[in-house]
Amino acid sequence: MGVVLFMVMMAVAQVSHADVYKVGDSAGWTTLGNIDYRKWAATKNFQIGDTIVFEYNAKFHNVMRVTHAMYKSCNASSPISTFTTGNDSIHITNHGHHFFFCGVPGHCEAGQKVDINVLRVSVEAPTPSALVSPTVQASHVPAPSPSNASPLIIALRGAFGVMSFTIGILSLAFYSYFN
Ligand SMILES: *[C@@H]1O[C@H](CO)[C@@H](O)[C@H](O)[C@H]1NC(C)=O
Ligand SMILES: *[C@@H]1O[C@H](CO)[C@@H](O)[C@H](O)[C@H]1NC(C)=O
Ligand SMILES: [Cu+2]
């Protein structure tokens, strides 16, 4: 029981390392090539402690952090903060949405905008690898009496499935609500 709980906790805890994400990957922060920054962000699991790097030619672009309303309307009149070095690292220190766009006229409208959404609930928990490893290993845990052990493992498996399902639904609801 203790071992199984420990492994479940490890599966949830293994996401807590800091990652560095370069916006747009090798393409960087640009209007060239019609980069879909929404799609880029959707495949990431941003966490507190991560660093977001905007790399671009500072002659042609910049980075503005803005409110949701300004993000939606591409209104660059009063950004929360502006970055102009061409290699800007932004450290994530809180949950929720972090809206950025390029403040050069026309660039946000052309799609140079990104929403870094740091979820409260880890979206890594429902992925197959995190789901499978604790349950698979659970069946190898030596049990004092098999008649007691199997209902326990089935119950744990059920609880984990319900939890992952709930988390999945919640993330989906979150995603559709804010987009
Ligand atoms: C942009 O935002 C400012 C301040 O919030 C507002 O005064 C202005 O009317 C907005 N401009 C447009 C085009 O919506
Ligand atoms: C951007 O800065 C990071 C360190 O903050 C550095 O490792 C990287 O080489 C820089 N990239 C460019 C293109 O200057
Ligand atoms: Cu730009």
TrEMBL record:
Q: What molecular function does GO assign, one term? A: metal ion binding
| Phytocyanin domain residues | 19-120
Annotated Gene3D superfamilies: Cupredoxins - blue copper proteins
- Signal peptide residues on this chain, from the entry's feature table: 1-18
Q: Which InterPro entries match?
A: Cupredoxin, Phytocyanin-like, Phytocyanin_dom
Q: Which SUPFAM superfamilies match?
A: Cupredoxins (SSF49503)
Query: Transmembrane residues, as ranges?
Result: 154-178
Tell me the superkingdom of the source: Eukaryota
Q: Which UniProt keywords apply?
A: Copper, Electron transport, Glycoprotein, Membrane, Metal-binding, Signal, Transmembrane, Transmembrane helix, Transport
Identification of the protein by name = Phytocyanin domain-containing protein
